[in-house]
Design a protein that fits this description.
It is a single chain. With 248 residues, this protein is mainly alpha-helical. It contains 9 helices and no strands. Helix 1 runs antiparallel to helix 8 and helix 8 runs antiparallel to helix 9. The N and C termini lie far apart (58 Å). It is found in: Endomembrane system. Keywords: Membrane, Transmembrane, Transmembrane helix. This is VIT1/CCC1 transporter family protein.
């Protein structure tokens, strides 16, 4: 039986990957990284926040209030941060592409030689590399795309959407941050129940990332669990110290 976290292309009876036009995941759509990061950050942030205020001895009502404040503030911050980050990145790519397009228009021979030199360094015969570079240069759009990929490491047609990144981060942060609040929302008042539920959420979220990275699911899950609980332990101790001392 095939491990559900093993990619199809690695299954014993799977067809060759080259025969499957979709054997690679979409790594440029702009949603996966902010979604994963948002969910993880929401879980860790609110688990740590709840552990801190819970360790300080506040009431369940105050824990819920604090947790939702952290959820809303964190989700908005994550969404705005992702939008700004991706938009800035896209603007920088657009600027570099415009500069590259000007160079292709002004110095097509030099740009073709530059492209050929890159291919020659990778082992392509010099004559063939130059012939292909010159042929590509006759199509301005194809030339720009190849130069962007070779020199900048980007595909002009596959830039991530800042809106997709923002909404992915906002929604996934909110979902992650809600998990440790669930016990309190159904009437529980024990901090340890919230930490257990949050810990399960951390493990599951970490395990799910293995589906995209081809890592062992339990290793990814345990790693995220340990990191999240370490953050919760630190804030719990700080909250307990402040609660005992009566500061504030």
């Amino acid at each position: 039986m095939t491990d559900p976290f093993t990619p199809l292309s690695q299954a014993p009876d799977a067809p060759p990957a080259a025969e499957d036009s979709h054997h690679h995941a979409d790594v440029s759509g702009g949603w996966l990284r902010p979604a994963v990061f948002g969910a993880m950050d929401g879980l860790v942030t609110n688990i740590a926040l709840i552990a801190g205020v819970g360790g300080g001895g506040v009431s369940a009502h105050n824990v819920i209030l604090t947790g939702f404040a952290g959820l809303v503030a964190g989700a908005i911050s994550m969404g705005l941060g992702e939008y700004t980050s991706v938009r800035t990145q896209n603007d920088q790519v657009a600027f570099e592409l415009a500069k590259e397009r000007r160079e292709l228009e002004r110095n097509p021979e030099a740009e073709a030689e530059e492209l050929a030199s890159m291919w020659i360094e990778r082992g392509l015969p010099a004559d063939l590399a130059r012939q292909v570079a010159v042929a590509v240069g006759r199509n301005p759009d194809a030339a720009l795309r190849l130069h962007a990929q070779e020199e900048l490491g980007v595909n002009p047609a596959e830039q991530p959407s800042p809106w997709v990144a923002a909404f992915s981060s906002f929604l996934c942060f909110s979902a992650g941050a809600l998990v440790p609040l669930l016990p309190y929302l159904v009437g529980a008042t024990q901090l340890w129940l919230s930490l257990i539920v949050g810990g399960v959420g951390l493990f599951v979220a970490g395990a799910l990332t293995a589906r995209f990275t081809n890592r062992r699911w339990y290793v990814s899950g345990l790693r995220q669990l340990v990191l999240g609980l370490a953050a919760a332990g630190a804030t719990f101790l700080i909250g307990r110290a402040i609660g005992i001392s009566g500061i504030g």
